[in-house]
């Protein structure tokens, strides 16, 4: 069932997602060669707590429930797609790309957003991948309005990514969000020809294309979290949480 939010819920979700946006914006200033992903994580946890939020991913149980996510941020470098675990051993290098996913709980409501940053100067292909993923997200959000269907979002994202010669990851998707991090509906980023559920005002959706420079195929590492491309190609991920209104989508995670 897709939950429609009350005015009060929407204002709490604005607050949760404002924290996400602030943290993502400030992380952009910190990302440079030589920084470890653990440093980013430690800073982000303190910043979120300072803004009266709680880390939304830390302790989040996976499918089995046996291996909760251990950190505040997901940090995914180069061929890592999503859910990379911050570590003292992971030192950013010139030319890397790093996807950072931030989840926040504020007064019982979730915020969720992600951004892929270049580390120093990056290859033209990496730049194109990042630009395409951001563009795909914007086109997807433009379709997120009452009266449209979920399939319109997928079609816009998939079409944009294909046109640039990249591929949309199929095993992962966006999601409804609210009192839970993952609510209905599932929001596919690739178009399977189905129109899907009709969109309504007061739905809150986390739209998050993940795209690969090579094949769409991905696998999960032995840490049970880190998702990587099967062919080792680069991957990018951008995410906004949006609230649907009668006049289109309000982006709650705008930096
Ligand atoms: Mg998400």
Characterise this structure:
By secondary structure, the protein is an alpha+beta fold. The chain has a single domain, classed as Alpha-Beta Complex (Creatine Amidinohydrolase). The protein has helices spanning 7-30, 37-50, 124-142, 150-163; strands at residues 54-55, 73-77, 80-82, 97-106, 109-118, 167-168, 174-176, 183-187, 204-207, 210-212, 218-220, 227-229, 235-237, 240-245, 248-251. The strands form four sheets. It has a five-stranded antiparallel sheet with strand order 8-7-9-14-15. Strands 1, 2, 4 and 5 form a four-stranded antiparallel sheet that branches. The two termini are 30 Å apart. Residues 112, 175, 206, 208, 239 line the site of magnesium ion. The site of magnesium ion has 5 residues, from loops.
- Give the spatial strand order of the biggest sheet: 8-7-9-14-15
Distinct helical segment count? 4
Bound molecules: magnesium ion
- General form: globular
Mean pLDDT: 97
Euclidean distance between termini CA atoms: 30 Å
CATH topology: Creatine Amidinohydrolase
CATH superfamily label: Creatinase/methionine aminopeptidase superfamily
Radius of gyration using CA atoms only: 17 Å
Outline the low-pLDDT stretches: none
Under the CATH scheme, the architecture is: Alpha-Beta Complex
Count of spatially separate domains: 1
Order of helices and strands: HHEEEEEHHEEEEEEEEEE
What's the helical proportion of residues? 25-40%
| Percentage of residues in strands | 25-35%
């Amino acid at each position: 069932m897709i939950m429609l939010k009350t005015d009060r819920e929407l204002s709490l979700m604005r607050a949760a997602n404002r924290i996400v946006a602030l943290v993502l914006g400030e992380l952009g200033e910190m990302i440079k060669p030589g920084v470890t992903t653990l440093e980013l994580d430690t800073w982000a946890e303190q910043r979120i707590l300072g803004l009266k939020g709680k880390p939304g991913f830390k302790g989040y149980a996976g499918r089995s429930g046996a291996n909760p996510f251990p950190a505040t941020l997901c940090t995914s470098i180069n061929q890592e797609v999503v859910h990379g675990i911050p570590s003292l051993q992971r030192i950013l290098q010139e030319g890397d790309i790093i996807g950072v996913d931030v989840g926040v709980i504020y007064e019982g409501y979730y915020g969720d957003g992600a951004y892929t940053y270049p580390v120093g100067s990056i290859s033209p292909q990496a730049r194109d991948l990042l630009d395409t993923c951001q563009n795909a997200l914007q086109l997807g959000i433009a379709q997120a309005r009452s009266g449209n269907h979920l399939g319109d979002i997928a079609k816009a994202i998939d079409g944009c990514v294909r046109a640039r010669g990249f591929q949309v990851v199929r095993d992962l998707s966006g999601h409804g969000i609210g009192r839970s991090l993952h609510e209905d509906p599932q929001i596919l980023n690739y178009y399977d020809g189905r129109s899907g559920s009709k969109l309504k005002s007061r739905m809150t959706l986390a739209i998050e294309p993940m795209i690969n420079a090579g094949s769409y195929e991905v696998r999960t590492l032995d840490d049970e979290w880190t998702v990587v491309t099967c062919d080792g190609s680069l991957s990018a991920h951008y995410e906004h949480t949006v609230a649907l209104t009668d006049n289109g989508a309000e982006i709650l995670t705008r930096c």
